[in-house]
Structure formats: C-alpha cells, structure tokens
Automatic annotation (TrEMBL):
Source organism of this protein record: Taklimakanibacter albus
Name under which the protein is recorded: N-formylglutamate amidohydrolase
Highest taxon of the lineage: Bacteria
Length: 261
C-alpha cells in the first residue's frame, strides 16, 4: 500500500502528450490508450514484459498511426501516456474495468487489492489531468475554429480476443449513424479489401465509457470513434499506410461539411 499522498514521482512521465495544438484541421485526435507507462512506485503491476507490451496494456500501434495522421491533416493530437491497466482513461472511475483485476483472462496482480487512497491517486494524477487537458484543448479549438472541433477517439483492437477471431479490419463507431460515419465508411471501403463496418467490434458504452460520452455527447460536439485492427498497424509501414487512408477519408468528410455549412 502506498504511504505518500503522491503516486507520480520525478522519473515518471507526464500523463498528457500533446502535439499540433495550433493545427488548422477541424479534427481533434485523442488516444486514450496511447502509452503503456507504469508509475515507478507501482513496479510492473506484477506483470511480465510480454504482458506489459501486449494489447491488455496498450492500444498497439494507434498513437504512431495517429501521429502520422495528425501530421498529414495538420490536426491537434492528445494522448495518454500510462497503461490502461494502471487506470483506463476511457472508463468511468468506479467501474469494474477502470482498474481491472483481470484483462483478457490474465490476472493483474498489482490491481488485486487497491485501497481507496490508491484509487484516488490514480484518478487524481493520471485520469483527471488527461481529461482536463482534453477539455481545455476542445475549448481552445472551438475558439480558434469558430465552431467545435470533430473529436476523433482513436483506438486499436486485437484480432483475437477471448479466444474468438474478429473478422473486421476497421470499425467506424457512433451512437447513431451520421453523415460523418457514413462518409468515412464509404471512403474507407474504396481501399482494397479492407473489411470496414459500423459499430464493430464495439459499440460505445454510454454508461461505462468516458471520453465520447463526457466530452462529445455532454458537450454537444461532433465526434467519431475509430477502431483499427492491430495487425494492420503493428509496423511503421502499416501505420503510415493507414494514416494516408484516413487522411483521404477525413478529407472527404471535411469537404462535405464545408459544402453543407
């Protein structure tokens, strides 16, 4: 059990990673599961290196892909540096998956017996700074653009989960189908044999998820959530390829919105 009132020390990274805050694009890219850092005071959470580098700890490939895309679009990018096993910044604090004891069948020993003080620390020092920074970035972008940005929650998913194979490559996710979602799906389907679907492999959990419900739905700003299969973006070449595809798809959306508005 931690004795201090602070979780993060001088050797730990800042939870918030920011880039291109002054970009011209109407899109704002957010990566809730960008990193897999663990505060030094928590050691390894009792996990081996293979687990700490695996999908249970990080959305593999998504931050690099989003970084390429942000560069191509000239769009702001925000990422969260700490592992989703320390605290999942896309889950409401207090839910079972916020600080999971088990992930994809693997026990997380460091989360087995977390005190209320430890939970408070993780929320106060990692979760809250990230979401405060995202809220501030949305406000700054709204002022800069003269309208709210389009919040793009960027995620990746593993091909096999819970012993079951997923047969989609890219998911375009929204609470209800919109022009943004429809245009993205249509454009992405023009690229070869990619299997693109609506609300796959997930739907937004409006009761348990945090980023889209808290920032977009409650804030009444346009949004989209993107899920990319990790085997497509496990390499630098794959990350660049998908970023270029999304650049074209997002460009179609921006052009359509400009014509209609």
């Amino acid at each position: 059990m931690l004795k201090s009132t602070e979780l993060l020390g001088g050797s730990d990274p800042d939870p918030v990673m920011l880039g291109r805050e002054g970009g011209r694009s109407p899109f704002l890219l957010a990566c809730d599961h960008a990193g897999n850092a663990i505060p030094a005071r928590l050691g390894t959470l009792g996990l081996g290196e293979a687990d700490r580098e695996d999908h249970i700890a990080i959305d593999i490939g998504i931050f690099s892909t989003s970084h390429w895309l942000a560069h191509r679009l000239d769009a702001p990018l925000i990422g969260q540096a700490y592992s989703r096993l320390v605290i999942d910044c896309n889950r409401r604090p207090g839910t079972m998956t916020s600080m999971p004891k088990v992930s994809d069948g693997r026990i997380v020993p460091g989360n087995a017996d977390i005190s209320e003080e430890e939970r408070r620390q993780r929320v106060a020092e990692i979760f809250s700074p990230y979401h405060t920074a995202l809220a501030q970035l949305i406000a700054v972008r709204t002022s800069f653009l003269g309208m709210p940005p389009i919040l793009c929650a960027m995620h990746s998913f593993t091909r096999v989960y819970g012993g079951r194979t997923r047969d989609c490559d890219i998911g375009v996710i929204h609470g209800e189908e919109t022009e943004i979602a429809s245009r993205l799906i249509h454009r992405l389907k023009t690229f070869g044999d990619l299997r693109v679907g609506y609300n796959v492999p997930y739907e937004i959990d409006f009761a348990g998820d945090h980023t889209i419900p808290a920032h977009a739905v409650e804030g009444r700003i346009p949004y989209i959530e993107i899920e990319i299969c990790q085997d497509l973006i496990a390499t630098c070449a794959g990350q660049r390829k998908l970023a270029f595809m999304f650049e074209a798809a997002f460009g179609d959306v921006e052009a359509a919105l400009a014509r209609s508005g």
